[in-house]
Amino acid sequence: MPPSFPFSAIVGQAEMKRALTLTAIDPTIGGVLVFGDRGTGKSTAVRSLAALLPPIEIVRGSAYNAAPVNGEDRETVPTPVIDLPLGATEDRVVGALDLERALTRGEKAFEPRLLARAHRGFLYIDEVNLLEDHLVDLLIDVAASGENVVEREGLSIRHAARFVLVGSGNPEEGELRPQLLDRFGLSVEVASSTDIAERVAVIKRRDAFDRDPEAFVAEWAAADAAHRAAILGARTLLRAIETPDTTLAVTAELCIALGSDGLRGELTLMRAARALAALEGAMVVTPAHLRVIAPSALRHRLRRDPLDEAGSTARVDRALAEVIPA
Amino acid sequence: MRDSAEPVAEAGAPAWEDAVLAAWLLAVDPVGLGGATLRARAGPARDAWMDLWRDLTPERPMLRLPPGTPDDRLLGGLDLAGTLAAGRPVRSPGLLAEASGRTLVLTMAERCPSGLAARIAAAQDAGAAFALIALDEGAAPDEAAPSSLTDRLAFAPRLDGLPLAALAPGAAPCPAEVVAAQARLRSVRAPGTLAEAFVGLGLALGIGSLRAPLLALNAARAAAALFGDDEVGEAAAAAAVRLVLAPRATRLPPEPPPADDDPPDDPPDSPPPDTSPDTADASDGDAPTPDEAEGPDDGGGRIPDDVLVEAARAAIPSDLLARLLAAGALRTAGGASAAAGDDGAGRKGGRPVGSMRGALRDGARLDLIETLRAAAAWQPLRRRLMAEAGAQATPGRVLVRPDDFRLKRFRRRAERVVIFVVDASGSAALARLAEAKGAVELMLAQAYVARQQVALVSFRGAAAEVLLPPTRSLVMTKRRLASLPGGGGTPLAAGLAAAMDLARLAKSRGTTPYLAVLTDGKANIALDGAPGRPQAEADARRIAQALRVAGVRSILIDTGNRPAQSARDLATAMGGAYLPLPRADARMLSAAMRSALDGPG
């Protein structure tokens, strides 16, 4: 496994980095969708996230990343960041009967696959809009229930599969189904910068990384460690953060003004704002936090009218200006 | 008009010399440069290049990858025969894994579906060490290899139209020289300012992707290594610009600029300050940031910018304009996949695209081979279990369980392409054009919900224009529609003809085209571009009839101020529905659209 590009070394793309950081602080925010131009480092950012995530404790040897509840023998493993490749078969995603055991020992045993490995971690789909429809259906179902149910050869398997769904794609390849869109907590639009200095910095860092990955990663280790510490600190702080009723009222007002579907948007917005407050070390969630995070939390939930000339981001901005005057 | 401009032949010898140089550079650094897109028909030029590549890289045997390659062959899977013979699962690694350290040749790259492109790109990103040669035989400017792929390939030599005499072999291909250059490559330094120069030039040439300057940097180093230098000099940098940046240009570099174009003398090392003042971003900027790595790149010399700009200007393809027109035209999403069958009218369900697990229910079609494959591995176990249960398995009979059922997956029946043909002429006066746009948007919303592909053709002045080949992207469609200008004559026949071409193409790709024509029916420009109402109307009628004969379903929405007989006649000639816009409201349009889309077809 070659080392991945350090998260801290990603130039610009503040919104994307923020969204990924916030879901790392509070996984219940529920995933990130990164949409944008080619060559803007979408998948780089997601892959580099793995190095930032604090390890998790699992029952020793568990193929399902089961959390120890009692005194089981336990071990510490990195938070899984699992790639769901295009073209993966259904068996490879949900799991299948273990063919090897069936053939060699004549036993029927379930072999857990991607969804089991992603439990308590991240599931990443690059080019998510090219994913086969039947796999999309399956993911929507599992992401909603947090549980993977498989029936094979008379075996019925049911295991927990709660993961943060991270998708990236290029809008020119096509749209996402609204149902899948809704599964992502935050959505981010990335564009390649037109600022020369920023572009030069991107090129130089990438070039340095390509030429000597180990040295480059070592150089940025301190920055990544600081970021990881910030995530951990924010996690501990999270429970103590206060969300005043006034902020809740503003949240509701914002969602109503935008006509966003269901309560999911409101919930995500609140959670993301709280995580942001924790990251900043603020003890109280204020409308200022909402303002920062509202575009990411809401813009992909406005697709009711896919043809509004203004575009989703502009609509969120408009509503923000009305509800939270500067 | 509707004939697609063939790429213009370039001056012979220099183009071939550059193509040769590209092959050498790629041989020196195949992983850093990704590969090359060969835009050429099969022919002596392409063969000569491929021969050269073969001679340069004897250690990289070629592996052919046709665009119809199924996933299990591409990504690997269970090797059924091997599994049964060995009595344990035997997996085949798949082409992409096998290609590591070799040359992967993607044939008919212009037909490569975006899904396949994404899989190849993912393999490259994951560090598969193959050089990719994409053979692009596209004829029309907008028929080309997927940009998700070409973006990652450093070179795109254009070999079409090279005279035979130009194909001089140049220096004899010498693998030893390549190996020597490879050994030198790691220690080649690039001047610190080179990255800035490439980025700046990339922007000046209108290249959005950041991969381009990065690939140019690698190409410059490979060139220096090949030239036997330990630092990138003018020649190497210019070669990189010529071979990597110029072919990607979407606009000409500015004329020789005034003297103040020098970038600041001190390299802009410090990362740019966060320029978004509106957001207090705690996750960014607080963390300690190592100084920008200049490291081994910190060479002293700098290469004058005008050398690079000149190199770019000289190498920009002569048919830039034609390609620019096509550049906006995104590669058809989903595009062509597998071998497109014959026009195959009336086939139910469209083309099969693999299989999936599922229950045999209404209308599902069993994929027998895949079902047997799924069942085969379990035979020993099932026999034993049956024996244990006291049942007798008939010898020689395959035990199939419902779990084994694999169903054929078809390109969804709903996969249709709605081709909007919008009259943007002066007679469809501007106010009406706005209404027509509104109508198209309404129908777009329908198409969006039904996950249809849409395409956009407009006609005005003397000709028709395909604004958007079939796509699922609403974003693109909206953008194109919004910027559609109006005015001029009404070349209705040309518009219908362009739509007919698209419809044919859509059919050949296994999708069902559906035409939505928005016009007032008042044709006054004939198919050949000459003004004159009688000929124009006759031409329009002729093509309308051809559309009916071709079996393309259609609806004509009369955008005139009041319903016109000419429009109604045209709808009749097309064999399509007729709906006068003045009386249509949003609901009616939606309903018309829905009935059209849900109807048999």
Structure in a nutshell:
Chain A is built from 13 helices and 11 strands. Chain A is an alpha/beta fold and 326 residues long.
Write structural notes for this entry.
The complex is a heterodimer of chains A (326) and B (601). By secondary structure, chain A is α/β, with parallel strands linked by helices. Chain A contains 13 helices and eleven strands. Chain A has helices at residues 14-25, 42-49, 90-94, 99-105, 114-117, 133-145, 178-181, 196-211, 213-238, 245-258, 264-280, 287-298, 312-323; strands spanning 32-36, 56-59, 74-77, 81-83, 96-97, 110-111, 122-126, 147-152, 155-160, 164-169, 186-190. In chain A, the strands form four sheets. Chain A has a five-stranded parallel sheet with strand order 4-7-10-1-11. In chain A, strands 2-3 form a two-stranded antiparallel sheet. The longest helix of chain A is centred in the C-terminal third of the chain and has 26 residues, at 213-238. The model of chain A has no long low-confidence stretch (mean pLDDT 86). The radius of gyration of chain B is 29 Å and the shape is flat. Chain B is of the alpha/beta class and 601 residues long. Residues 1-11, 257-289, 291-300 and 321-350 of chain B have low confidence and may be disordered. Chain B has helices at 12-28, 30-33, 44-56, 71-75, 80-86, 95-98, 114-125, 147-150, 175-185, 194-204, 211-227, 234-245, 305-315, 320-327, 368-376, 379-388, 430-449, 474-482, 492-508, 533-549, 565-574, 586-598; strands at 35-39, 62-65, 77-78, 91-92, 103-106, 131-136, 352-357, 406-410, 416-423, 453-460, 463-471, 512-519, 553-558, 577-580. Chain B contains 22 helices and 14 strands. Classes of the chains: A alpha/beta (326), B alpha/beta (601). Chains A and B meet through helix 1, helix 4, helix 8, helix 9 and helix 11 of A and helix 4, strand 3, helix 7, helix 10 and helix 11 of B.
